[in-house]
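I'm stuck. Protein, please.
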Amino acid sequence: MKTKTAAYALRLPASMKAEAEKIAAEDGASLNQFIASAVAEKVSALRTARYFAEKKGRTDWSAFDQIMRREGGAPPVADDEIPEAYRTARK
């Protein structure tokens, strides 16, 4: 299956283009592949942030607290406790 592509004329400062070419060459990629990968990373980061922001708005904190206080299970391992700042901020 062939991926559809679209051309886009990109204007970069010469110094930024030179640095991007250098990094792409070090990775064995073309400048085009490097830029496409960078855009994909940014799109992914923005979509992920949006996803979690939407989920955060639907959080049922009372259900979370009930689950966290339930009996049984193993105690937290070292450095896995709920941070004090979080506990005091929720009160």
About this structure: The helical segments are 14-26, 31-57, 61-69, 84-90. The chain is about 60% helix and 0% strand.
